[in-house]
Automatic annotation (TrEMBL):
Protein name as catalogued: Putrescine oxidase
Annotated residues for binding of substrate: 340
Positions contributing to FAD binding: 16, 35-36, 235
Pfam families associated with the record: Amino_oxidase (PF01593)
Amine oxidase domain span: 16-447
Length: 467
């Protein structure tokens, strides 16, 4: 086993860990990044499937994501706009199909008014509470101890309005049933994007993509770090004192002054900490979990929906595939659709055989865009729930009541151990932008800590007896 000495060791080579490593290196500190997978990128992954380039993980860039946009510019990466010309499709709970334009769903006047009322309420709460410290608001406990599902129905008697509004947080973002998380968690999700209105506006939140794929962000940062990114190195043990750590991974041991856990909170328990983490962390991490979503990719010889005057965008809260979008690659003559099957609908889908699931999903997409959707030339399901080093998607959120109890401590370092992932971000929460922001912020904090410390890493590293 090789033994390395660095100022900082980062666990996880996703956008957050690599952003932290990059900033630390630029400040003159020595780093090494340990990654369990055989690739970098974390929950971003651009892969070739049956000859088609697919974005298996995170992919979109919105106008407010300035940290990500700035990093893209630094790395020399270009973006392109998602195709959204033409009409969208709305499927009612009864299966009625309506073509429409604009942001508003083609629902009854009463339902539209109720959706607008709920949107205004959520926008007001998001503006008042914010994303940085929602747990500190005077109403935090009140809003964290009622589910989003029940709160919506306290505000409105229109079931269709409640389901449509719930779609954007439950299925669209947290990928958990609306009864499983709180209003405060929904407000955090909204505030992190600037407002709930931004989440409703697919033209905003799903604005652009990266030419060549989002994983390039991590790949290019990793290339800068070269041999200081080590793959196939799952971390097993972290032995720590107040100002030093020894990190034991497959095939490598690192002695350092600080460690950054740049993985989702549900993976913290995969590492043995010596001494154990404080009680607060043990409890907190048990209240954070990832959601469940199947990201479906269907590639066709041509984007046939465009010839029919359709944008490829569709919504249906009662559908198996609740959202579908045109996901055609830059300058690709073929057409690609992406659809999402979330939370309890994903539970059901996974009870089916692979063939049955594919048929049901494609039929749901065809309900939006017509029978041609039944015959893709490439079909693929991104199943992050079964991925060993992720175990869910898109990111972690708290169970009912957990955010106001534990949120204030989720980013607090434990001795030399720092926490950094999109799951813990404020602005950009659950997005690549949030991963970049918190990675850079974590690096800034460590730089300041080490600049004020006179600790010599060689003198402070744990002894072999403590490992």
């Amino acid at each position: 086993m090789s033994v390395l000495s660095r100022d900082v060791v980062i666990v996880g080579a996703g956008p957050s860990g690599l952003s932290a490593a990059r900033k630390l290196r630029q400040s003159g500190l020595s780093v090494v990044v340990l990654e369990a997978r055989d690739r970098v990128g974390g929950r971003t992954w651009t892969n070739q499937i049956d000859g088609a380039t697919l974005e298996i993980g995170g992919q979109w860039v919105s106008p407010d994501q300035t940290a990500l946009l700035g990093l893209l510019e630094e790395l020399g990466l270009q973006t392109f706009s998602r195709y959204r010309e033409g009409e969208s499709v709305y499927l009612s709970a009864e299966g009625q199909r309506t073509r429409y334009t604009g942001e508003l769903f083609p629902v009854s006047a009463h339902t539209a008014a109720e959706m607008e009322k709920l949107t205004v309420l959520l926008d007001e709460l998001a503006a008042e509470i914010g994303a940085e410290e929602p747990w500190a608001h005077p109403r935090a406990r009140e809003l964290d101890t009622i589910s989003f599902h029940h709160w919506l129905r306290q505000q409105s008697d229109d079931e269709e309005a409640c389901n449509c509004i719930g779609l954007f947080i439950a299925g669209g973002m947290l990928t958990k049933p609306a009864h499983a998380f709180s209003v405060l968690q929904a407000v955090l999700m909204s505030a992190s994007a600037g407002s709930f209105s931004n989440l409703v506006d697919d033209a905003f939140i799903l604005d652009k993509r990266v030419v060549g794929g989002m994983q390039q962000v991590s790949e290019l940062m990793a290339a800068e770090l070269a041999e200081d990114v080590i793959l196939n190195a799952p971390v097993r043990t972290i032995s720590w004192q107040q100002d030093s750590v020894r990190v034991e991974a497959e095939g490598v041991s690192v002695e350092a002054r600080r460690v950054v856990m740049a993985v989702p909170p549900n993976l913290y328990s995969r590492v043995s900490f010596n001494p154990p983490l404080p009680r607060r962390q043990h409890q907190m991490h048990q209240h954070q979990s990832l959601g469940l979503v199947i990201k479906v990719h269907a590639v066709y010889d041509t984007p046939f929906w465009r010839a029919d005057g359709l944008s490829g965008t569709g919504f249906g809260a009662a559908e198996l595939v609740q959202e579908v979008y045109d996901n055609t690659n830059y300058e690709d003559p073929r057409g690609t659709l992406v659809g999402f099957v979330s939370d309890e609908k994903a539970d059901h889908a996974f009870t089916l055989s692979a063939a049955e699931r594919k048929a049901a999903i494609l039929q749901s997409i065809a309900n939006y865009l017509g029978p041609q959707a039944l015959e893709p030339v490439v079909y693929y399901e991104s199943d992050w729930g079964s991925e060993e080093w992720t175990r869910g998607a898109y990111a972690a959120s708290y169970d009912l009541g957990g955010l106001h109890r534990y949120g204030a401590d989720q980013r607090t370092p434990v001795g030399p151990i720092h926490w950094s992932s999109s799951d813990l971000a404020a602005e950009g929460y659950q997005h690549v932008d949030g991963a970049v922001r918190i990675g850079q912020a974590t690096a800034t904090n460590i730089i300041a800590e080490l600049a004020s410390s006179s600790v010599n890493p060689a003198q402070s590293a744990p002894s072999s007896a403590g490992a």
